[in-house]
Backbone:
């Protein structure tokens, strides 16, 4: 019997977070689901984090029946509190959504440069290069609704490689 492993990954921001679920079977990765939600800076941080929370709960609920083997998020390090505060608010919303289902991250946050280097072979890859690399790794032929979706897929693939699921 072939074992299937599932990696849930979040590219977290307050403006437009992305999520991806990748399954790996026999060393081959497939995108099971991907999503993003766009919030507007015209709303308060409280409204925006509530939207992110509700979106994350819905994404997790839609995909939780078969479980998650690994859960990760992208690392963000802003230069000022004004950059950090909105992202950390979104992190809190995603953390709360995970707690609803008694889930925890299995990995420390991963820098974009780290997962871009693994997937696109270039830590400074541009967003279209990352999306194309994700397509090559997974055979996905569709479009990504946002860079946040392809970034979340890249992060999930990075975790799968790190865990030895993909050579």
Residues:
């Amino acid at each position: 019997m072939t074992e299937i492993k599932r990696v849930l990954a979040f590219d977290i921001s307050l403006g437009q977070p992305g999520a991806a679920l990748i399954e790996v079977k026999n060393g081959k990765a497939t995108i099971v689901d991907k999503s993003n939600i766009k919030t507007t800076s015209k709303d308060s941080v409280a409204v925006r984090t509530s939207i992110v929370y509700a979106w994350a709960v819905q994404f997790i609920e839609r995909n939780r029946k078969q479980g998650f083997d690994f859960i990760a998020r992208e690392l963000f390090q802003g230069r000022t509190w004004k950059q950090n505060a909105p992202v950390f608010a979104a992190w809190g919303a995603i953390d709360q959504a995970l707690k609803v289902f008694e889930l925890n991250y299995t990995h420390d946050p991963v820098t974009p440069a780290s997962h871009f280097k693994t997937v696109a072979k270039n830590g400074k890859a541009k967003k279209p290069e990352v999306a194309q690399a994700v397509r090559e790794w997974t055979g996905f032929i569709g479009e990504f609704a946002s860079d946040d979706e392809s970034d979340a897929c890249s992060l999930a693939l990075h975790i799968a490689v790190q865990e030895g699921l993909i050579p």
Remarks:
- Helices lie at 45-63, 81-100, 112-120, 127-138, 147-162.
- The chain has a mean pLDDT of 95.
- The CA atoms of residues 18 and 149 lie 5 Å apart.
- The two ends are 20 Å apart (CA to CA).
